[in-house]
Amino acid sequence: ISLAGNFWNLAQPVFAIKGQQPNGTNVVYFLNGTRRIKVNRDNNTVIENITTATAAYGRPALFEGSWYLARGDVINAVRLVIGNGAGVDEAALVSIGVTANHFATIQDESTAKLARVRVQNVMDLSPDGTDWTGADFEIGDTSFYVTDLLESQGELVVIRPDGPRRFDPSGVSLPIQKFVSANQQTSVNEGANSYSHGTFVYWVSLSGLWRIASDYIVPVGFEADPQFFST
Predict the structure, then answer these.
(1) How many CB atoms lie under 10 A from the CB of residue 141?
(2) How much is the pTM?
(3) Cα–Cα dist 74/118, whole Å
(4) What is the pLDDT of residues 189-209, one digit of tens each?
(5) Is the Cβ–Cβ distance between 78 and 95 less than 8 Å?
């Protein structure tokens, strides 16, 4: 989809949510920083462009038929249903009463759960998107915020400016890659816009594009080609 350049703040991550309204209109939501842009995919026109000055969107997740939109540590997260039987999207996004920086889904033994990251580096799980009374666990220390939250092969891959970590539903963690030179001047958006697909996680870092497979991490960007500089 081609849109005017002034729609985007490329210093912030961009997330896309696709769906179809009951009237048959194919839509896509773009979440970019504090902006929520709804586009008609059939004719490439903007349906709405909403800015919430204090709520920067994190990674959304589809859980139990609804999209959960993370809006930071201050503004409560919301639930979005694309199509409510009236031919349009749900008239008002439904607050779920808790804050979240990012969402992801994970299978916790016999129960599908929604995971959220909140307050910089704290994670917890909910069986229904409403009950968040389960035990919290930390993701690294509070030096850095989590910049992305992904699911791959039954584990959560947490992206932080000081490197990605793997977590199981019990909170057991293993750093996949740790920077020796991590410092407080590291970009707060380092690692945002990472991506998971099947058995692979693609970590987008200022140092390049990396592919994570289980315990292995290798550079895969064009700059990793030994012939890059001579080319």
Answers:
(1) 10
(2) 0.78
(3) 10
(4) 788 888 887 778 888 887 788
(5) yes
